[in-house]
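Worked example

This section walks through a single chain of length 145. The input is the sequence exactly as stored; nothing has been trimmed or padded.
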Amino acid sequence: MQRSEPLVPPARGVDAEAAREKAHAAERRLSGFRLLLMATNTVIYYGLIDKSQAIPWLANAIVAVSYAYGGWFLLSAPYRRFPFLVSGYFSSMMDTALVLSWVYATGGYHSPFHVILYVTTIAVAFRYGWRQTAVAAVAQAAGYV
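Given that input, the structure is written out below as tokens.
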């Protein structure tokens, strides 16, 4: 009976690289989801809802900034050059700032888009741990008040 060589675990560098690539793939998917969510909200805002309580110039500015931010993340992948952009705190706070601005611009408490706050909190919960989820939920609650 031949004795086989023991399995050698991959080097730490390989594991670290695999973890980085997994995080980068998640950021890329999140960027695509952001753009899809923005496209849906743009169609709803411009085509379907009453804009009597909205602030049109602010809503238009947020649409432009959101598309620029989402497109920049999707096309240039800045998180590969700047590792802090992969942080759950950074992406959660950027998304929270954009969503809260959007809710404010489209009617505040009367905005039909306040549901997006729940979606972003759930997205953070699926992607990160309880600390990042708690920070995102507290920031969104504080900003919505």
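What to look for: The chain is about 70% helix and 0% strand.
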